[in-house]
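Homework help board

Subject: predicted structure for assignment chain

Our instructor gave us this sequence and asked us to write out the predicted structure in token form, then describe one feature. I got the tokens but I'm not sure how to describe them. Can anyone check?
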Amino acid sequence: MNPLVTPEWLATRLNDGNTIVLDATLPPVGVTPPLNTHARYLDKHIPGALFFNIEELSDHSSPLPHMLPTPEDFSRSMSALGIANNSTIVIYEQEGVFSAPRAWWTLRTFGAHLVYVLDGGLRAWVEAGLPTEAGPVHRPPATFHATLNQESVKNLSQLKDKITNHQQILDARSAARFNGTAPEPRPGLSSGHMPGATSIPFTELVEDGRLKPAGKLRDLFLAKQVDLQQPITTTCGSGVTAAVIALALEVIGAQNVSLYDGSWAEYAQQPESIIEKIS
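My token output:
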């Protein structure tokens, strides 16, 4: 299933009561003061779109940023939003490719089946001459039963097993952070990378505010010597842009892809973790 859909595809389904559109825009990292993406959503969004707040829908008992919540909490949140397991869900973000893939991965990991990302996001929708609206949106409650797909998400122990067994780990952070030549944005964390990891900055997967075409994505992964037939685990700073790699891999047909949810925010603070640098 191609996870990307066009504005035209969505426009023909917008009045279908089973189609749910989600704005899943996180504020970009490092912008001060932080961008109020919810206010921007209220100002302009695709008609009927709900705001999928990745931060609010994360595990607040964890000291790590935006970790997956429990299935029970996610079930309650989705049901209250009006999202059911059998809903056709289309996710977008206001600019570029950054956080919508995280929402796509989260919903898929918790058992939603028909989950798509709007190629080009809100900008592509507007450029296609399609309408927007303002203000809050509410849907009647639905029933969502979240079931965690254990194959989709990896914890620290599983990640270390993958390092030991020389399995493929793809890191979405910038090359400078991966190499250890630029600092991490989170205080107290060393930059660098996990042993055996491959640097695939998520920005290299994007052009003109959307994922690159499938042919270019395939060439990029092959140039990095990624074996699409073998297990792949994606990682980044905090589990958000790792999902950009996961989405790109889905587009080109990779089957065995998981995401390390704790990512560098967890790995780099473990005293026993091996951190490699490239000078």
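Reply (TA_rk): Your tokens look well-formed. For the description, you could write something like this. The chain is about 30% helix and 15% strand. That's the kind of observation they're looking for.
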